[in-house]
Design brief:
6-stranded mixed beta sheet; Aldehyde Dehydrogenase, Chain A, domain 2; 2 domains; Aldehyde Dehydrogenase, Chain A, domain 1; alpha/beta; 25 strands; 7-stranded mixed beta sheet; 481 residues; single chain
Length: 481
């Protein structure tokens, strides 16, 4: 059956439909999903605007109960949803299960945040006047999400938007409509008022710009590429909209001479290669001091040899496919760029012929490691978004820190060390929104802020109580006593 858009509380046929394929086995068709046009987008925004007055001023317990039902159903169906996610996006089923579980917890966390929104009462500098500072919902929020976390990222945007009384028009990445549709179906059955939440699947080239520039959209929360994010920022500025952007990363992982070698190798392997490297927080720059360099490279190469590449749904798979054929080609292209620039390939570097069906092979590439790379090489400047990592050899901590910060991005940064001195200094001086000490750079909690610096992020932080900074607006009221 075709899967339709959710607009104004009902399932609506698309202007056209697109096939969704399994990247482990491209002959496996997951479904046929509606693609909206600008006319359907207009209807969705109008429905959200109509629903906003009652939703934004209605009982907070109603919002809390709805979000709790959504989170509870996600968790009760996590096995089913994880299978769907792994089949659609290509991360292993184990990783998919972790993502789905996180999404459920996010909704349940924000069910509580509905009840915790606070304000201030202050005295005025003028006699006989009081001051009340409160937070109110922004309005209708346009939410645009990427393909690499097709349930968790929508959850950490949609849940706070609804919790704080906003209405939502949600456009997921065209590559992963099945996970978005499943989430929308759960939200739809939670009992929220028609029009509060709307799903418009479709191509960004068709409905992306109309969503961002629509006069009924008060704010836009986007996760995706730097180029698209910059364009959205300019469009929102032109139209006076609130904007929140999470974009790229080129995250450094520093390995110092005093590091525990086993810890350094394991966290580097997880950061660089798990989820097929398709995480904005992945470490693709391994900055290693010279006295541990050779031992680290050898140990990491041996660890990589143990990684099992295969069908995302297969038991024991460590690394699934790239999410699409175009992403596979981008990975292979960057591998050739690194070779041409003089990097030394020590592991991987090739497409892997994992046939999970009788027809076209999946989009598999071997985890890849380069050495003898310099900080100015493209492989160390540009985001590959695949299981490709490069080692940069340095003399000491000071050089490692300087190279770690020598990037246009600033999302996550890690250090492996047993030195309290260096760990403390790195936490303060790493130019990143998130710092990990003896932990993978990829892997964050849902109840604390998420975001970066430089070209990685723009606008207020996501997740935890900091989400209120974007999804609410502050009002100051003066009252004569």
């Amino acid at each position: 059956m075709p899967f339709e858009n959710l607009i104004a509380g009902g399932w609506v046929a698309g202007a056209q439909y697109g096939l969704n394929r399994n990247p482990s086995n491209p002959d496996d068709i997951i479904g046929e999903f509606a693609q909206a046009d600008s006319a359907q987008l207009d209807i969705a925004v109008a429905a959200a605007l109509k629903a906003f007055p009652q939703w934004s001023t209605g009982p907070i317990q109603t919002r809390s109960d709805a979000l709790d039902r959504i989170g509870s159903e996600i968790l009760s169906r996590k096995e089913e949803l994880a299978t769907l996610l792994a089949r659609e996006e290509g991360k292993t089923r184990k990783e998919a299960l972790g993502e789905v579980t996180r999404a459920g917890h996010i909704f349940r966390f924000f069910a509580g945040e509905c009840l915790r929104l606070s304000g201030e009462v202050l005295p005025s500098v003028r006699p006989g006047v009081g001051v009340e500072i409160t937070r109110e919902p922004v309005g209708v929020v346009g939410i645009v999400t990427p393909w690499n976390f097709p349930i968790a990222i929508p959850a950490w945007k949609i849940a706070p938007a609804l919790a704080f009384g906003n209405c939502v028009v949600f456009k997921p990445a065209d590559l992963v409509p099945a996970s978005a549709w499943a989430l929308a179906e759960i939200i739809h059955r939670s009992g929220i008022r028609a029009g509060v939440f709307n799903l418009v699947m479709g191509r960004g080239s068709v409905i992306g710009d109309p969503l961002v520039t629509h006069p009924g959209i008060a704010a836009v929360s986007f996760t995706g590429s730097v180029d698209v994010g910059r364009r959205i920022a300019l469009q929102c500025a032109e139209h006076g909209k609130k904007v929140q952007l999470e974009m790229g990363g080129k995250n450094p992982q520093v390995i110092l001479d005093d590091a525990d070698l086993n810890v350094a190798v394991e966290l580097s392997a997880q950061s660089a290669f798990f989820s097929t490297g398709q995480r904005c927080t992945a470490s693709s720059r391994l900055i290693v001091t010279e006295n541990i360099h050779d031992r680290f490279v050898q140990a990491l190469t041996e660890r990589m040899a143990l990684l099992r590449i295969g069908d995302a749904l297969a038991e024991g798979t460590d690394i699934g496919p790239a999410a699409s054929e175009s992403q596979l080609h981008q990975n292979l292209q960057y591998i050739e760029i690194a070779r041409a620039e003089g990097a030394e390939l020590v592991a991987g570097g090739d497409r892997v012929a994992c046939h999970t069906g009788s027809g076209k092979p999946g989009y598999f590439v071997a985890p890849t490691l380069f050495t003898h790379t310099g900080p100015d090489m493209r492989i160390n400047r540009e985001e590959v978004f695949g299981p490709v990592a490069s080692v940069i050899r340095v003399t000491d901590y000071e050089e490692a820190l300087a190279i770690a910060n020598d990037t246009e991005f600033g999302l996550s940064a890690g250090i492996a060390t047993t030195s309290l001195k260096y760990a403390t200094h790195f936490k303060r001086h790493a130019q990143a929104g998130m710092v990990m000490v003896n932990l993978p750079t990829a892997g964050v909690d849902y109840h604390v802020p998420f975001g970066g610096r430089k070209n990685s992020s723009y606008g207020p932080r996501e997740q935890g109580r900091y989400a209120q900074e974007f999804f609410t607006t502050v009002k100051t009221a003066y009252v004569a006593s």
